[in-house]
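Weekly puzzle thread! Below is a chain. First person to post its structure in token form gets bragging rights.
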Amino acid sequence: MTSFVELVTKKNRFRAACNDLTVSDMRTMAKNLAEFIEKRVRQENEVQAIRAVQTAKKQEILKAMSDAGLSIDDFFANDDSMLKKARKPVVPQYRVTDADGEVHEWSGRGRTPKAFAQFFASGGTKESCKI
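Winning reply:
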């Protein structure tokens, strides 16, 4: 709770805070509070009316779906035609053996692997390591 809410909801604290106020100040405060309450009641009634309309629309849609022989699950079921098919791995086009004797293969797509970058930096070409 904020300190203001705690102050106005605790009777003794509120009374102590109002000791220095005049009757005119307290009447103005009461009038403003009454206006705020009326406004909040109107807002809450509007929200309830909107929710009632939404609920009615939901029920109408569910009835139409039921009449059509559909359920909510029909809209969210996994359809095989909508699933992405797994791609085949790309065949390597280049092969290099590094200084340690380890063989590295690369499809030629994406970032250049370090072993190939070192090979190219030492004067090698793509054509010389093509499979």
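Puzzle host: Confirmed. Bonus trivia for everyone else. The chain is about 55% helix and 5% strand.
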